[in-house]
Write a structure and sequence with these properties.
Length: 65
């Protein structure tokens, strides 16, 4: 069985963090991801664009909008 996991965060709060804290957080996530990958429990990691650059596609009246 395979699962898909989404992680969300508050962009404004993230942007307000000191650079050193962001770096530490990113490094901790990479270390965790690498351990999961090495164990065979993680296949792929990906990220969406930040909200200000993202595009949402929604169905409306049978068409995309």
């Amino acid at each position: 069985m395979k699962y898909l996991c989404f992680g969300y965060y508050d962009q404004k709060a993230f942007d307000a963090l000191p650079k050193a804290e962001v770096t530490a957080l990113v490094n901790k996530c990479r270390t965790h991801d690498e351990a999961l990958h090495q164990s065979g429990r993680l296949l792929v990691v990906g990220a969406l664009a930040p909200p200000q650059r993202a595009t949402s596609v929604r169905p409306r009246q049978g068409s995309r909008s």
